[in-house]
Structure formats: C-alpha cells, structure tokens
UniProtKB/TrEMBL annotation:
Residues 1-127 form the UspA domain. CDD domains: USP-like (cd00293). This is UspA domain-containing protein. SUPFAM superfamilies: Adenine nucleotide alpha hydrolases-like (SSF52402). It holds the Pfam family Usp. Belongs to the universal stress protein A family.
Amino acid sequence: MKTVVVPVDFSENSLATARYAVNMLSGIPEVNTVLYHMYEKANEEEEAYFRLEAMKTELSNVAVATISCHAEPGSDFPESLSRFARHWAASLIVMGLTGKTKLGQIFMTGNTLKLVEKNPCPVMVIPPQAEFTKINNVALTSDFRDVDLTTPVGPIKQVLELFRPALHIVNVNSEHYVALSEHFLEQKARMNALFSDFKPEFYFIGTYDFHETINQFVSDKQIDMVITIPRSHSFIDKLFNPNHTKKLVFSSTVPVLAAHE
C-alpha cells in the first residue's frame, strides 16, 4: 500500500486541495490518502479528529479512494509533517497554495519551501488556478548536467508509478541550435536509460525564458503535471517566490512536483 499525505487545516483551500488529491488518485489501487492535521494544544485533539472524519466522509462521496486520518500535536508544521511522511515512507505529499490573500500566500509558500528542503518525499504543489484533471501526461524538466548524479530517479519513479503517464523530458537552453551537442546527446542517452520503463519523449528547446517556455509547453502538449528538480535553496526560493509572477508554480495551471535526492 502506497501512502499519499495531504495536510489540511480545515480551510476551504485545504479542502479544495484534498478534493483535488482524492479525485487525482481515484481508482488507483493500493493507495492510502492520509488527511494530516497538526494541532498545538492537547485539548484540540478530539475536535481535530471530529473534523477530519467529517472531511473524510465528504471526500468519500466525491471519489473512490482509500482515506485515513491522522492528527498530532506540534509547533513546527514542516518538521512534524516531514517526520510523519518519512515514518510512513510516503510516496507523495500534496499541498495547495492559496492565492486569495498575500499573507496566506506567503504563509503557505514558506511552509512549502521548508518542506521541499527537508525532502521527506516528492512534494506536489497545486497552484491556485489549477483545474482537476487525471495525470496522463507529465513533463520532467532537466538541465541535462550529470544526470546520473543529479536526477532523483527513485523518488520520481515512485510518483510516475502511481499514474503511469506518458513522460515528456524537456530541456530549455538558449544555446541549442539545429543539432544537439555531443554532451547533450550523451546525457539524453543516460536519461533515456534511467526512465526506459516509461518510454520517454525528449524535447530540446532553444529559448531564454524557462518559465514562459515551460508554460507554453504545458499548453501545447496537454501536460497534466510538471516535475522539477531543485538544486539549491536559491533555486527553490525563486521557484516558489510569489513576488515573481512569471515563476513556474504561481503561473502554472497544472500541479508542480518538486523532487530531489
């Protein structure tokens, strides 16, 4: 049984994220969706489980899925959630970003950043404007540098095995011309070997604007999820920064998955 964790705080946004997750996982066998809630005071446990069970009942009427509930005390949300995900060897954490208020956006972004950095498992972020669809086509973005060492094959395959999608591996580099260099041909061969089970298709696009290019690719190829591989804190910060409106997560219309070793 694979575990997918969906943190909830009982807000309308977290309910929408949970609804998205169970719809996305509906009909996939051997998957347990865990509604996770962290509370701060001991006397909040009973109410937390009451509300979790009510949410579970509502979601069970939306889609065919195995759903369970977990609430625990804590004061550090990313740390508690990360520990829980590691304990249950979770394949995926699904989180939402609210775009309704600046404060809420910053709060959710900060927690997501910390969670991605702790790296208990891949983290899927549902952008505010994302509309539910089954995961049939996935785009994996790569810089094609030392792919054997820098590509988190295991965590990515865990997610791909959930959905069994068509895999599109994309590189955006302004230095691409008519033909690929020997370096890119070598790295392409290695990447093809790493994901041979999914028979990937490759795209090398010679432009400067990564985010705009990826969003156009998502539209052109009817991509349902984008996988990105954060290399450093600065990359993660730029990726999720709400002040950069063209950055991938906040301009995306589909879920974005962050996975790294």
